[in-house]
Amino acid sequence: FHPDTQSISYTTLSRFPPVRLLRASERKRILVTGGAGFVGSHLVDRLMLLGHEVTVLDNFFTGSRTNLSHWIGHPNFEMVRHDIIEPFMIECDQIYHLACPASPPHYQANPVKTIKTSFLGTLNMLGLAKRTKARFLISSTSEVYGDPEVHPQPETYWGNVNPIGIRACYDEGKRVAETLTYGFHHQDGVDVRVARIFNTYGPRMNPQDGRVVSNFIMQALRGEELTVYGGGKQTRSFQYIHDLVDGLIACMNSDYDQPVNIGNSEEFSIIEFADLVREIVEKVQREEGMGNVKRVGVRDMAMPKDDPQQRKPDTTRAKEVLGWQPRWTVRMGLEEMTAPQRVHITLYAHTFTM
Ligand code: NAD
Ligand code: UDP
User: Fold this and answer.
1) Which residue in 30, 92, 119, 163 has the fewest CB atoms around it within 10 Å?
2) Catalytic residue among 96, 107, 145, 170
3) What predicted TM-score, i.e. pTM, was given to this entire model?
4) Tens digit of pLDDT for each residue in 135-146?
5) Which SS3 state, helix, strand or coil, does residue 38 take?
6) Which residue from 147, 224, 229 has its CB within 8 A of the most atoms of ligand 2, so it is best to mutate?
């Protein structure tokens, strides 16, 4: 124990995962907006284990308290129900600004609210960063590239977005959030980081959120046909959550203030991805001794409007400026996510929460 270390006894806190003991000078006060969601809760886990003080702001629109129930009561942890379209005051050193619904059905359910979250929410959090001199990281998205005409997509590509289409509330919301971020940077000297996140999957994805990974896994586990939209020739590149958390923390702690793509460049057509998911789920079911494992088929459904036809990150910059590159192949991530001990939980509790 260093004299200035908060003395946390592992014995008295044994109901919590063990957190690192940091000197007070190393321990940061970190605000995570959207911390109760899929990405946010994994990020909070890592920041807590690293020994920081973490405050989560979330309105629980798509996130849930249960994603973080294992930290409730820990002296380094606080969770506040708050909608970021309203200002919030707190002293902090770093802000990870993640709050925003991310799946198309959720962000399209109330497009005006999605835009307000991206614009007013980001404005409020940047105002907070300006006042407290906290470093500010925004979770932007590959959607700023829209339906890209450049492939793979480097950070220098300006994108091809329909400004009035059904995805615009999210895509244009994130684009204006980036604009605001650099406005505060140039005008007020706010220290900013911009992570452009590509499709990410992992435990705690909301199984009802309509994204392709959770849909396919839930459908395969239930023995239902996999719903492939528009023939499934469109492509995506999927990264596992642990790689993303590494990338976000590396981005925050780097001295690089321009946008950085964080994604895995393993690219699949959606129909290839459906084959991979059903192969892995069948393997898990056989290992579980589930007897005659039925091969599920696919059901062709209409292509949603403005669905990007190809997507794959150019991650050269992340490698150069952050020293970051993904370590999980898609197969490894899917196998971990659907591992036998999880499948029971998944089917029983209808969630990937564990
Ligand atoms: P998610 O829906 O699981 O999490 C979003 C969280 O933000 C939820 O906990 C939700 O309740 C909260 N939230 C939404 N609106 C809010 C508001 N107005 N005030 C307070 N809290 C609010 O989504 P996710 O996949 O965890 O995404 C997190 C962030 O990462 C988002 O900003 C998203 O745009 C970005 N991102 C995610 C992916 C991905 O593949 N998961 C890809 C690109 C970008
Ligand atoms: N998709 C699909 N079946 C589903 C859900 C999605 O074929 O059940 C397709 C969707 O049309 C898109 C891709 O999978 O081309 C990824 O969709 P997702 O909603 O996961 O993310 P995004 O479109 O935002 O990348």
Assistant:
1) 163
2) 170
3) 0.94
4) 999 999 999 999
5) helix
6) 229
